[in-house]
Amino acid sequence: MSFPWAKEYKPSHPLMQWLDEKLPLPRFVYNAVGAGYPVPRNLNYMWNFGILAGVCLMLQIVTGVVLAMHYAANSGVAFDSVEHIMRDVNWGWMLRYAHANGASAFFVVVYIHIFRGFFYSSYKPPREMIWLLGVTIFLLMMATAFMGYVLPWGQMSFWGAKVITGLFSAIPVVGTPLQQWLLGGFAPDNAALNRFFSLHFLLPFVILGVVILHIWALHIPGSSNPTGVEVKSESDTVPFHPYYTAKDGFGLGVFAILYCTMLFFLPNALGHPDNYIQANPLSTPAHIVPEWYFWPFYAILRAFTADFLFIPAKLMGVLAMFSAILVWFFLPWLDTSPVRSGHYRPLFRKFFYLLVIDVLVLGYCGGSPAETKYVLISQIAATYYFLHFLVILPIVASIEKPAPLPFSITQAVLGKDDQTAPAA
Amino acid sequence: MADEAIVNASGTDTPAVHDGSGGEDGVRRRDFINIAAVSFAGVGGLAVLVPLVSQMAPSADVLAESSTEIDISQIAPGQAIKAVFRKQPVFVRNLTPTEISEADKVPVSSLRDPQTLEERTKPGKTNWLITMGVCTHLGCVPLGAGEGEVKGEFGGYFCPCHGSVYDTAARIRKGPAPKNLEVPPYEFTSDTVVKIG
Q: For an engineered disulfide with A51, which of A180, A248, A258, A396 has Cβ 3.0 to 4.6 Å away?
């Protein structure tokens, strides 16, 4: 599971020795995030975001479980119970804002984590399984976040639920029955609210399970690093503790400052005022938008306005939106370049930054009203998005001349490596 | 089984026939029992899924709310009201003669979802346009039924979510929606009362 020079867990206290014999949980932790896990010595701050995502998940689980003690999942009282949390429950306002902004923080962190993966090609062998599990976690997060947003039963909650479950009605033949089955009715109502609450409570623990698999899969090849060169010898690594517990601790501090700024000074900046109006099935808000973290995908959904052959525009939009994430599953086999890190891939690097801009443009359009100019920009940006993954990446991999790689991580850091072959 | 084992153990019978290692056609008794047991357990397991899946479907009380009676005597020509049917809005609209002739002027073949106004209303009651107030794109409530709401460039309904435009027969004319506004099943129980569902 690890490198041969990994330190072994040797408990000195008799109680710990006894525990290690019966249930080696401390040994497991020691080997996972302690001194028993050797990590490349050159990780930069982009490698902080995995731990930060874990912190966000725990934050959401803790605040979520507490909120569930005061929330009532019934369409008659759900909206009032959220106001009860905000006004009457001790510290309720803080817990709810912590949970709502925690969701945004979680997505910020995870998006950076994913784009770190894009830039450093973290998905390449031998780490494909880590990547596949990561994309699975992201899909579960999206489902969880969507259902959580429905629970306050405001106008955006209701119409978000209606529009998103309406996506399923685009599926030929079974679409409408499927939508009614998902909602337990003809429109979002008590049945839908209750099941969304149930699943919103369950899914974070499913995510936790997949996160454990994600980390398990990570510890088989070990962490990647900014050079993309695999670990060759002990001088390439440092123990996770204390080196990266300290570095992650610093990152966590910076994260906490930004998060608390949002939580205490701008708690509603990322929300929609319409969600403080109780759900009304007879009146649609003038401008329905999902939460910001869905905007790029929402823009892709809306980019399809004309039928394509026999496929109606609505179905095309739905298929494209889901494909925009599903295409990530194929990334390890689309990008065939043997070089991992974007630092050594001059052509790839340019396209990476173009993709970042493209996704930001999609996000901006997804948050804007469905006006012709935004739809037109979305169409161009959505086309480029798919071109990047399906066409540009394979072509770049085959024509690009990568810059020379360092012999080892040690050489990249120190400029020399005693283990280096004579050539260096 | 136990008897056979005793017989085999005593050696009074040929083991090849009774030890379960193969009959004349090569089918082992033990394989048969294995497959039969797993199959029955599998069928049983699948049967458990039926209630688990079915509980998600609309429940009896939700289905029971599936008809609505509406008094239409107060709706003047050119006016519309919103009613509720299956927790969703229904538009009941009293079309003016101009709106009817506008709808009839459109060549049906040019429509995305070809239907005439006559096909979408009851005979002799062409002025009563009764449709769901649910955009066929993603389910928003289109504007145009309430007083002062935007009716869109074809004088019918306009969905603000993604810009679908419906004409005076509530047929889709522009935008992403694939179908005309749905006409629910309904009947006139008298000249002034309509029963939907």
A: A248
ipTM: 0.74
Domain-located, residue A5: no
* CATH number of residue A65's parent domain: 1.20.810.10
How far apart CA B153 and CA B165 sit, in angstroms, is 7
Q: Angle CA(B24)–CA(B26)–CA(B31) in degrees, nearest 5?
A: 125
Instruction: Say whether residue A281 is in contact with chain B using an 8 A CB cutoff.
Output: yes
Structure tokens at A82: 């959220």
> Of B59, B138, B178, which has the smallest distance from its Cβ to A312's Cβ?
B178
**Do A184 and B62 lie within an 8 Å CB cutoff?**
yes
Asked if residue A147 and residue A246 are part of one domain, the reply reads yes
A to B CB pairs, distance under 8 Å: 82
Question: Does the reported pTM lie above 0.90?
Answer: no
**B185 touching A (Cβ < 8 Å):** no
Distance, C-alpha B14 to centroid of its chain = 65
Number of domains in chain A: 2
Cα–Cα distance between B87 and A162 in angstroms, integer? Answer: 12
| Residue A150 included in any domain | yes
Residue B87 sits at the chain A interface (C-beta within 8 Å): yes
pLDDT tens digits for range A257-296: 999 999 999 999 999 999 999 999 888 887 888 999 999 9
Whether A263 and A299 map to the same domain: the answer is no
pLDDT tier at B24, thresholds 50, 70, 90 = low
Amino acid at A376: L
The residue range of the domain holding A381 is 289-399
Residue A24 Cα distances to A17, A28, A241, angstroms: 9, 6, 19
Catalytic positions of B, please?
Answer: 162
